[in-house]
């Protein structure tokens, strides 16, 4: 059945669209072609403009003084938008660096920036490679069959980021469950419940955990990222409890969920494109390019929202002050104007100007770490991998924000 433009726009507000690649990319291609800046009115959601062209997403990202992260940072139902607005007014809402605009954004982002600079990443890389080896060993121990997404991909990046934070390994499973509940609130397998109260309860569990962590690190700093966050000061004052907990939440969740999605989706792409797997094995020097192609292909962050601070013309469309835009990263990363044969998985794609990490002042703080993790894992896996194939149908998370494969059953031979 052929989609209309309005139906394609509404697909962006349907979590199930992101669990169906064919449906999603059919809708996005139609929007890029016929209505690249399209007003979407979907049931249960406040209206928004869908921005689907690479050049237009870039323009909005560059104009960060016009298009603000607050108050509508991600796509939520109208009911959740209102609840979030009320909580922010009360000073008790989730307020991470992705929710902030300058000058707050610049100052708060700087708290963790040194932990993700090139020198810090070089110091961390041996530990990342040690953990990558451990999880490839885990594949070998599983005897040639596993659900790669659930048993391998989700654990490796989680271990890396929570080790960087300094959390005890005994808490890792708890963090994984909370992250899946937070980002998988629209997915039947992950959500705690269907009501806004259930979603709020997940957030409050995060906050309670990290409030205890803050108190412990302020009493006894331990030289880890959690200590840096807990003891950070702005204008001589510590962050308030909710801003401190929010900082932990964004690092602990976005710091692993996006990378695990890329690793699982990257392996799936190599299985589905055996010529590219053979090419990468024959030419391991292509790995840095292959990593960025996996990131483009998967695009774990599906969207961010921006709100216009003043009237602005985008591709001839007048966006009024106070109106919201949705930046569709999967669409920008398949834009025919930028990527030759964009629906082809190409481990040697160069240049690869994907926007999976955003652009400009809000560029992903953990981008370098994500690249190191994906590269380390596949550089450890491929020399030991003799064969691999699907062992059942893959399944993706129903989401409108962050997600990827939640099941990837595979059969393989790993030395």
Plain-language structure description:
With 415 residues, the chain is of the alpha+beta class. The chain has a single domain (5-393), classed as Cytochrome p450 (Orthogonal Bundle). Helix content is 50%, strand content 12%. The protein has helices at 5-11, 21-34, 54-62, 78-89, 104-113, 118-141, 148-153, 155-165, 172-183, 196-219, 225-230, 241-272, 274-282, 287-298, 329-332, 367-381; strands at 37-40, 48-51, 67-68, 145-147, 233-234, 237-238, 303-308, 312-314, 317-319, 324-328, 385-390, 395-396, 405-407, 409-414. A five-stranded mixed sheet has the order 1-2-10-7-3, sandwiched between helices. The protein has a three-stranded antiparallel sheet with strand order 4-14-11. β5 (233-234) and β6 form a beta hairpin. α10 (196-219) packs across α12 (241-272), α12 packs across α14 and α12 runs parallel beside α16 (367-381). The longest helix is centred in the middle third of the chain and has 32 residues, at 241-272. The radius of gyration is 21 Å and the shape is globular. The termini are far apart. The model has no long low-confidence stretch (mean pLDDT 94). InterPro entries: Cyt_P450 (IPR001128), Cyt_P450_B (IPR002397), Cyt_P450_CS (IPR017972), Cyt_P450_sf (IPR036396). Pfam families: p450.
